[in-house]
Amino acid sequence: MLESHACVIGASRGIGLEFVRQVAAQPRIALVHAGCRDPGHADALVALAREQPKLRIIAIDVADEASIANACTAITASSPRLHLVVNTAGVLHDTTLGMQPEKRLVEVRSDTLAHAFAVNGAGPLLIAKHLEACIPTRERAIFASISAKVGSIGDNRLGGWYAYRASKAAQNMALKTLAIEWARSRRQAVVVALHPGTTDTDLSRPFQANVPQDKLFTTERCVRQLLGVIDRLQPADSGRFYGWDGSELPW
Ligand SMILES: NC(=O)c1ccc[n+]([C@@H]2O[C@H](COP(=O)([O-])OP(=O)(O)OC[C@H]3O[C@@H](n4cnc5c(N)ncnc54)[C@H](OP(=O)(O)O)[C@@H]3O)[C@@H](O)[C@H]2O)c1
What's the CA-to-centroid distance between 199 and ligand 1, angstroms? Predict the structure, then answer.
C-alpha cells in the first residue's frame, strides 16, 4: 500500500491527541501533522512526538484564519498530498471566557455564541479551504470533522446548549456543502461529519454524571471505533453524518 500523509487538528488533548497516537501507529502512514493551538502547553503531544518520529507539531488556532493559513502553508510544503485530515478542534465550555453550555435562553451571550461559531462552525471549513490544494484530485482522501449528535436538528429533543448545538449544526451544513463541491473536483474524496459518542475528556467531564459506564468511552476506544468507520468510507458516503458505530445520523 502507498504511504500516506495525515493531518490531525485539535491535537493537544482528548480525542485529537489519541487520533494522533493511533494514526501515527499505522504502518501505511508516513507523516502526521499534529495541529494544536499552543504547542508550548501541549505537554502530552510534545512527549508523544519525542517517541514517535512521524509527528510534526504545528501551531494552529482554528478561530483565526491567518493562523490556519500559516499552518496549512507549512503543511502543504512538506505534504503536497494529504490522504487523511481529521479535525477534532471544538469547544463546549471555556473557563477563561466564562463560557458554559446554556440551559435557558436568558444565558445566551453574543461573545460565546461568536466563539462557538468560529471554532465549531467556521473552523472546519477554513481548514478545508487552506488545505484544498493538498487534497488529491484522483485518489481516495478523507476529510473528517468531529461534530456532535447534539448538532443534529432532526435529533434535537431536549433543547438547551444553544451555542454548541447551533455551531455544530453550522459545521454539518458546511461539510455537506463542501462534499458537494469536492464531488465535482475531487471524486475520490470523502467528506464526513462524525459523532464520537460520549468520551471521557475535559469537554465531557462536567456532564458525565448521568452517563452509564458502558456508554462512556475511553479516548482509545473512541478513536479505534472512529478509525474503523473512516476505513470503511467510500466516495458515495461523502456528505453524510456518521456515529461511532457506523450508523448514519440525521442532519
Ligand atoms: N468528549 C465527548 O463526549 C464529545 C462528544 C461529542 C462530540 N465531541 C467533539 O469531539 C471533539 C474533541 O473533543 P474532546 O472531547 O477531545 O474535547 P477536549 O478534550 O476539550 O479537546 C478539545 C480540543 O480542541 C482544541 N481547540 C479548542 N479550541 C481551539 C482552537 N481555537 N484552535 C485549535 N484547537 C482548539 C483544544 O485545544 P487546546 O488544548 O488549545 O484548548 C483541544 O485540543 C470536539 O469537536 C467535540 O465537540 C466530543
Answer: 11
Residue 232, C-beta contacts closer than 8 angstroms, at least 6 positions apart:
246
pLDDT at position 3, please? Answer: 74
The residue whose C-alpha atom lies closest to atom 19 belonging to ligand 1 is 14
Cβ partners under 8 Å of residue 131, min gap 6: 7, 72, 75, 76, 82, 85
CA of 202 from ligand 1 middle (Å) equals 8
Query: What distance in angstroms lies between residue 83's CA and the mean position of ligand 1's atoms?
Result: 22
Q: Does 116 score more than 90 pLDDT?
A: yes
Report the percentage of the chain scoring pLDDT > 70.
99
In this predicted structure, what is the pLDDT of residue 1? 46
Mean pLDDT, all residues of the chain:
97
Pocket test for ligand 1, best of 201, 208, 210 (most atoms within 8 A of CB): 201
Q: What is the Cβ-side half-sphere exposure of residue 49, based on CA atoms within 13 angstroms?
A: 19
